[in-house]
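Severity: low
Component: inverse-folding endpoint
Summary: output formatting inconsistent between runs
Steps to reproduce: submit the following structure tokens with default settings.
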């Protein structure tokens, strides 16, 4: 038997005679995949905020100084790797299967 639920904490299976049955809950692998994907995206988001905060905390003289093309290239490489990672994580196949109870 397949069932879907947001929380299995209060799930009971009762048959037509009113008898309660033990339920074995199996979590689908796609649910773990979704959690891992969400964690990875949160990690990327934290990294971007950390970089932004680091630049914002620089002294005003450093913020007003010109940057070299090496600095610019470094930023572009960082951003391109983050975009690639985001598209890789977001593009992974998702199955529509939810948790299964039998």
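Observed output (run 2 of 3):
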């Amino acid at each position: 038997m397949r069932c879907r639920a947001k929380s299995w904490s209060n799930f009971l299976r009762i048959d037509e005679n009113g008898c309660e049955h033990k339920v074995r809950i199996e979590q689908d692998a796609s649910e773990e995949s979704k959690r891992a994907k969400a964690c990875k995206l949160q990690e990327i988001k934290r990294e971007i905020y950390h970089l932004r905060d680091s630049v914002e905390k620089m002294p005003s003289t450093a913020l007003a100084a010109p940057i070299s093309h090496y600095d610019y290239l470094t930023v572009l490489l960082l951003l391109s790797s983050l975009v690639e990672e985001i598209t890789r994580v977001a593009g992974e196949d998702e199955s529509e299967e939810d948790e299964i109870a039998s």
